[in-house]
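Regression report. Comparing outputs from two consecutive submissions.

Submission 1:
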Amino acid sequence: MAKIGIGFCTAVLTLISAIPGEAVPAPVPPPNVDLQRTLKGVEDRYNKIQTLQVKFTETLTSRGRTKTDSGTLYLHKKGKMRWEYASGILFISDAKFIYSYYPDEHRAEKMSMKESDDMKAPLAFLLGDVNFDRDFGEYHTKPQDGGVLITALPKSDKFPYTEVTFLVAPDSTMRRLEVKLQNNDLMVFTFEGEKKNPLLSDALFQFTPPKGVEMDDLTK
């Protein structure tokens, strides 16, 4: 599980050259794409959900090398999450602390939710804190694969990413998320099999290191 600097969704808008003395026309979404309706659909869907379970595939491209893993993501409003990878890696938040477990290294880490520099922490916004107007300022859209592909640019350069591209299905589910980081690394998440409001045990969001595993407490 790759670490990056920290929080969600954005992309590059092509600037139209202005004729001297004339105003630059505002960018217009392509035909058949209702940007505001699409964004509101995503906000309404995820802000109303209490729990979520979805299968994911994660691909990280860094310095010309690509690494892929997959698994199941569990989210509980607000801030609780569990990324359970097929490789055995775990990434768990109890809304206060984040625990990362690397079985191949027999090592685990504990850090504050606010201080986490992992992209997965901001992804918890999918439950209860989706607000595109607050976080993003510019959008580029087009129809794709039966849904809407939206590339958005964050309003602040303090975010760890420079642009985010996401594919929204007709039912307002998030099918794919591409995050371009400040260091030009690219993280791509694809989602499928989403389940709204499944019954999730609190134990899913608790972490006890296995016997013999070293815990590095970064909160101290």
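Submission 2:
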Amino acid sequence: MNLILFFYFGCILGSFFQSLNSRMASQDSLTESQLNVRSFRSNCDKCGHQLSIIDLIPIISFLYLKGRCRFCDKKIEVQNLTAEVIFGFVFLFLSFNSFNTFDLAFNVLFFSFIFAIALYDFEYFLVPKIYLLFLLLVSCSFVVMHGYLINVIFASVITGIIFVMKLILDHIKKEETFGLGDVFVIFCLGLFFEPFSFSLILFLSSFLGLLIFGLRFILLNKEKKVPFATIMAIGALGISPLG
């Protein structure tokens, strides 16, 4: 029963972040003046009708309404359902791999924000600053409470090297090779994970990123952006049982 509740709590957060992502994408940024109760009322993306509780129950509403708005009968974006299911399984995975309530709380906070970034990066190839801020706060709090000085040193050195590499590659190609947001995500991962696990995440993410880039280049015969923050979030989740 607890696992079902935990899964559904993840679905609720997934629904919230996907809705927030859509708003940020349409408004370019989320400013303080927009953070009010009225702005967070959910509306149909197609007809703009304000939605009620029956329209907003994660997974159940989508299935009950057969993936259509009950006001305009237009199709509901499948990304909403996907985000709910992804967050549900992420939370379920964390519940199996957290040794105590303290670790579980930090894991929930960290992976909520990194997967919110992953969803946004996958769709828009950008890393929202507001999510980065919260991810950095969670990572720093985790380091301070555990006293992991080695994490801070290792993360700073590796992130510094990657940042210099970014500058060199940007200069050579005369364009941005990967975003500064990705660099900050790397730093947060370095703070939250032990050096070995952090190194493993970077290695696997880089390998997978190059593989995806190479396949796209071969199949499409052109360069295309790779959502590296999304890949790192998946890698971090997979490596999380190692600590």
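Expected: both submissions complete independently.
Actual: both completed, but the second showed a warning that disappeared on reload.
Relevant detail on submission 2: The chain has two domains: 1-97, 101-243.
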